[in-house]
């Protein structure tokens, strides 16, 4: 029984909030009488179905497709819980769905799949895709998540977005842009170190390189990902090809010596002595939850800007700042995919929201800042049109 159980009920307030689930489906049209019924269902619905069959693009105008996203998981890498399976993952997927609606005005449907094979996941989601305007992949373990996203995007003509990768990367880049500006530097002047070579770490490295960071080294459990290592997976071998330009090798502590930026997406603990060797005006984003890789009290001794993944400290790197607006923008223009340019535009728009309010405790907006979603939505829609993936 969970902690706090008693009297047949679970004592923690989270259980009360989750009882019966956190979402429901509601009609947007009335069915009050025979006339309403004949329009919402048979025979009136047949006219709409026939029109869509003849002109498939009308599905966006006469169904919910253009405003709904599937939130898809296999339950293999949930939050900080790990491999808990599809049914146990549902509370998280429901939570994601209500955040889509609350912060982006996008309807979302949780889809928890009882399969782990990459091709089976791709096939299943591809067959479900006609019902949705976008696919948000969630909590699928690395390295399978990379292949699932790539293969699925090749199969469908709607956006596929693995939020654990790209949402984290977009928000991290936005915060780093502002932290660099606050400390009088450009991205191109920074050397960064990423702890964690999983989904988030790889995506953050990729977007930072795309954005023009001076250099970035990524570290896994065995140390710095470098070209001279013979134990790299295909993903890490590719990663070594576009990171670590100076050719560092050895443990993470070696990479941190003189580094301007630390980004943690792995858990674990970084020794204070290693943090002390970072460059002046260092930037520390220790984003593991619930325990940051570097405790904020320690980080503040040496860093000019500190961010975490927690809501009880300033500068929370929270994916909810990105994914609702990114999908809202993509759906608005019926984009066929989400490009690197659209992600970069989202990060720039997010950073700009607080550009005139910068301080050490404010390099990224609050998730409840009402300016965020409209800014990201507009930027992503504009980028989609500029890159030729918009259809309206």
Automatic annotation (TrEMBL):
<feature type="active site" description="Proton donor">
    <location>
        <position position="41"/>
    </location>
</feature>
<feature type="active site" description="Proton acceptor">
    <location>
        <position position="96"/>
    </location>
</feature>
<dbReference type="InterPro" id="IPR037062">
    <property type="entry name" value="Malic_N_dom_sf"/>
</dbReference>
<dbReference type="GO" id="GO:0004470">
    <property type="term" value="F:malic enzyme activity"/>
</dbReference>
<protein>
    <submittedName>
        <fullName>Malate dehydrogenase</fullName>
    </submittedName>
</protein>
<keyword id="KW-0560">Oxidoreductase</keyword>
<dbReference type="InterPro" id="IPR051674">
    <property type="entry name" value="Malate_Decarboxylase"/>
</dbReference>
<comment type="similarity">
    <text>Belongs to the malic enzymes family.</text>
</comment>
<dbReference type="InterPro" id="IPR036291">
    <property type="entry name" value="NAD(P)-bd_dom_sf"/>
</dbReference>
<dbReference type="GO" id="GO:0016616">
    <property type="term" value="F:oxidoreductase activity, acting on the CH-OH group of donors, NAD or NADP as acceptor"/>
</dbReference>
<feature type="binding site">
    <location>
        <position position="318"/>
    </location>
    <ligand>
        <name>(S)-malate</name>
    </ligand>
</feature>
<feature type="binding site">
    <location>
        <position position="164"/>
    </location>
    <ligand>
        <name>a divalent metal cation</name>
    </ligand>
</feature>
<dbReference type="GO" id="GO:0051287">
    <property type="term" value="F:NAD binding"/>
</dbReference>
<dbReference type="InterPro" id="IPR001891">
    <property type="entry name" value="Malic_OxRdtase"/>
</dbReference>
<dbReference type="InterPro" id="IPR046346">
    <property type="entry name" value="Aminoacid_DH-like_N_sf"/>
</dbReference>
<feature type="binding site">
    <location>
        <position position="289"/>
    </location>
    <ligand>
        <name>(S)-malate</name>
    </ligand>
</feature>
<dbReference type="InterPro" id="IPR012302">
    <property type="entry name" value="Malic_NAD-bd"/>
</dbReference>
<feature type="binding site">
    <location>
        <position position="139"/>
    </location>
    <ligand>
        <name>a divalent metal cation</name>
    </ligand>
</feature>
<feature type="binding site">
    <location>
        <position position="138"/>
    </location>
    <ligand>
        <name>a divalent metal cation</name>
    </ligand>
</feature>
<feature type="domain" description="Malic enzyme NAD-binding">
    <location>
        <begin position="165"/>
        <end position="385"/>
    </location>
</feature>
<keyword id="KW-0479">Metal-binding</keyword>
<feature type="domain" description="Malic enzyme N-terminal">
    <location>
        <begin position="20"/>
        <end position="153"/>
    </location>
</feature>
<dbReference type="InterPro" id="IPR012301">
    <property type="entry name" value="Malic_N_dom"/>
</dbReference>
<dbReference type="GO" id="GO:0046872">
    <property type="term" value="F:metal ion binding"/>
</dbReference>
<dbReference type="Pfam" id="PF03949">
    <property type="entry name" value="Malic_M"/>
</dbReference>
<dbReference type="Pfam" id="PF00390">
    <property type="entry name" value="malic"/>
</dbReference>
